[in-house]
Every structure is written in C-alpha cells, then in structure tokens.
Amino acid sequence: MAEFEKGLVERLFAEHRRALQSFFYRRIRTKSDAPDLAQEVYVRMLRLSDIHSIRDPERYLYTVASNLVKEYAVLDRWQARGVDLDGASIQQRLGELPTIDAQLDVMQRVARLRTVLAELSPKCQAAVILQYRHGLTYEEIGERLNVSPHMVKKYMVQGLAHCRRRMARSE
Asked: How far apart are the first and last CA of the chain?
C-alpha cells in the first residue's frame, strides 16, 4: 500500500475512531469489545488494494463497521451455543472482506433481477418469490394463490425461463 493511501486511512481512522467506538458501543452486548472492533475496521481498511476507488471513504468505513457488527452478532450467538469458533475455516471466512467490485456486482444483479421479476404476471411472480424467498412447497404456494400445484409448476417453469433469458441478456 502506498504511503499516501496509508496516510489517508490513518487520517480517516484518527478522525472517526471515537465515533466508531461509540457506533460499536451502541450495537454490541460486550461493550469492552468496542475499541477492538474499531481497530479491526482500521486493519481492514489498510488491507484494501485501492482505497481511491472508494467514492465515499467515510461511508465505506461505516459499511465495514456495520459488517463487523453483523459478524460480531454471529460470533456471539455461536459462542452462546458453545460452538468452537477457533476453527481455522470459520475464522478465515469471517475475516474475508468482499471486494467493492463484488459488492457492486451483487447489488446490480439484485436490482436487475427485481426488474425482471416485475415483468412477470402477478401470480407467476408470486410463485417464484414464494418458492425461492420463503421456501414454500408447490402445494403451499397453490393454496396461497388459489391454484393447483400443477399450475404452480407451470408458473415456476415460465418464471424461471423468463428470468434466465432476461438475466443472460444483461450479462
């Protein structure tokens, strides 16, 4: 990392360290972990390969902090269950920070999928959403939509074919 980029991260952290600690303090159960979590934000920011590609470094700083709060909550729940979290694979997965490009790509795909789903008929759209977002069976979807399970299957085939065609065109 270039010295200029490191200086930018250090300045950003110096300006927001206390605010970050307060941010964590309000959102976590073990308040004494707030300074450590703020430090982890700093470390993750230093790991970035190109900080200049971030349009709003302050917002990104709090995005990283928000993600850490979520990771902390997961760890907290697992520890409450007595699960061993010291395993290398779990720590590695929690420590991985998705790239900005990957985050933007996912957000663009989700937005595109919403647009494609909106093109479906209401019942077809509902069938796809009930199946994939809520995990309902064809019978349960049929009951909710007042159609037969066979008709739900037709909606699913129709909807998935449409989504595949339209999403493939956008790539």
From this structure: 33
The 10 Å Cβ neighbour count of residue 74 is 13
- Residues 71-119: pLDDT tens digits? 888 877 766 665 555 556 665 666 665 666 666 677 777 788 888 888 9
Residues 49, 110 share a domain: no
* Domain membership of residue 18 as a residue range: 3-97
Q: Which of 35, 66, 97 is the last residue of a domain?
A: 97
Tell me the one-letter amino acid at 53: S
Task: Kindly report the pTM of this predicted structure.
Answer: 0.45
User: In terms of domains, do 10 and 91 share one?
Assistant: yes
Residue 66 identity: S
Q: Supply φ then ψ for residue 134, to 5 degrees.
A: -105, -10
